[in-house]
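User: Second chain of the day. Same drill as before.
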Amino acid sequence: MGRDLHALLRDLATVAPGLAVVGFLDDDPGKHGEMVHGLPVLGDTSWVTANVSAEVAVGIGSPAGKRAVVERLRAAGARVPSLVHPGAVIGADVVLGEGTIVSAGCVLTTDIRIGDFVTINTLCSLAHDDVVDDYASLAPGVHLAGNVHVGEGADLGTGTVTVQGVEIGAWSIVGAGTVVVRDLPANVTAVGAPARVVRRRADGWHL
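Assistant: Same format as last time:
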């Protein structure tokens, strides 16, 4: 996901000439000093305490993992920008929260509210009146019909499709290719067409 995000930033730099990427951060000490896409792994998240002028883009697919890292970055005073690929189509009445990522080929039509630190991966489509809460993650090719509510930290797998008006509960996981035709509760895993719950968890966000 970090390399995908770097690719987005390279494309974004073509329309934002002042943008410069200086490197990657990784909690694995064994990777520090390695080169990725021609850029160094600078260290772990503590790097931001000595570089408070830098902005940090969070390329983490797991909603729970992302939340844990974001909490550390916020404690260190990091600034986390929202990033929209120049090839995405964003309607005039769409609100994007802090640290949200919208990737190439996405279409967000109108009257949509996206929370903080949401990941909307490539080729997703979101229709009118959708709401996606903080830390949720939409894998490539997710299609949300109108008036859908995706709860905090929900993780929608590649090719997930919903009908209009459904709600997907907080910290639930929806498997790749699932078709959601009715509401799903919080803290469950659902798969299939139509979606069926195959697992329940007491608390979905903790690692």
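The mean pLDDT is 94.

User: Great, on to the next one.
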